[in-house]
Description:
The protein is α+β, with helices and mostly antiparallel strands. The protein is built from 15 helices and 16 strands. It folds into two domains: 14-171 and 227-316, Bira Bifunctional Protein, Domain 2 (BirA Bifunctional Protein, domain 2, 2-Layer Sandwich), CATH 3.30.930.10; 329-422, Anticodon-binding domain (Rossmann fold), CATH 3.40.50. The protein has an eight-stranded mixed sheet with strand order 1-5-6-11-10-9-7-8. A five-stranded mixed sheet has the order 13-12-14-15-16, with helices on both faces. A hairpin with a 7-residue loop joins strand 9 (263-271) and strand 10 (279-285). The site of adenosine monophosphate has 17 residues, from strand 6, strand 10, strand 11 and helix 11.
Amino acid sequence: MRYAAPKGTKDILPAQSGLWQANEYLFLHIAATYGYREIRTPIFEKTELFARGLGDATDVVQKEMFTFMDRGERSLTLRPELTAGVVRAYLEHSLSGEGPLCKLAYLGPAFRQERPQAGRYQQFTQYGVESFGSHDPSLDAEVIDLALAFIKTSGLNQVKLLLNSIGCAECRPLYRQALLKAVGERARELCPTCQDRLVRNPMRVLDCKSPVCQSVLAGVPSTTDHLCTACSEHFQMVQRRLYELGIEYTLTPRLVRGLDYYTNTVFEAVAGGIGAQDAILGGGRYNGLIEVCGGPGTPGVGFAGGMERLFLALAAGGDASQTSAGPSVFLVSLGDEAKTAAFRMAHELRQSGLATEMDYLNRSLKAQMREADRQGAKAAVIIGEEELGRGTATVRWLEGKHQAEVEIAQVTAYLTDRLQGEKIGTIGVV
Ligand code: AMP
């Protein structure tokens, strides 16, 4: 019996893990430069947190959550997104007490029971930020700037930023009424999902992809036609800030986003060439969320992106050349004594930060050299019996093919000196 990974999940194999590590590091590093510090929350939470936080009427809560009972008959759910858990932790640990503005970054797996397809998985990896405590539209622009800075630095240059405002608790009900009135009798023509949405969460019909629904909705008013003065001014300021940063965007009146908690600004970055699931990341403002989760009224703004979709887009048009690094140094040894010296040398080189590999299969010198090449090592250190007798080893640079005889006791110093940029310690942690 051979097992396969559950549908909608993926193994990240060593050939891709370098890409993951580099981008995970890059994201947290860029977030830190914008003042967002990492928070890690549990992978599962009480089901109620998501039902309340995301909204009972959302697709995610209605049909996509992995929910299970623990032995005490408490309902738990694998997180379908990370914001609700971050809000829970923010309130539970009174992070507002550390300062009036709390800026958090996160990265980790999320789970949704959706029909798997290209770019849509049941387990995927979300990265994102949240900023709690300020209404300032500059923060909406900062979050967008950070999101784009990350995807651009990761190598993806061709993304389109979609932007809209969906108003607040005051102006949204008026828009809803106007929308229902404009759809009027033609509601019957909408797809079954939208008929249901029209009752539970009417604004969600706006982003339905069905051509029939789109034709019914052709003439309906835009969310921005019904913004109250405060929301309208807020949206103007977000746009001004984006303009000041030279960030281009497309006003997209139909953009409403899937989760209930959004207010005011909503945005999405989409990429071409990756099929229907083209949203690389999305976010916006959610001034009501913290209150819904049991806290005091606190404004918030943030975004979340899917790492897998970013990599799909990079593979389709960006620069995904970054692959897992092999060893910097490969130790080639012949004979027991040389192997003992190689084993000790490997330990020393690794201690000094150089990724080092050696032969464990007693292969011939030629086969070991081939292996050093195959693994992409920068240098091979050859310890033969003859050299050992002289207390030396041959360092061969695999690209230029030149070589030098170096005293065994000096090999580590010699290589660390010449391979400074390869040292694992120099990548470091944020
Ligand atoms: P959402 O909160 O649904 O807007 O999700 C934010 C981002 O997470 C999206 O823009 C996608 O990049 C990613 N994402 C959401 N659902 C999935 C999924 N099922 N598989 C892969 N990525 C996803």
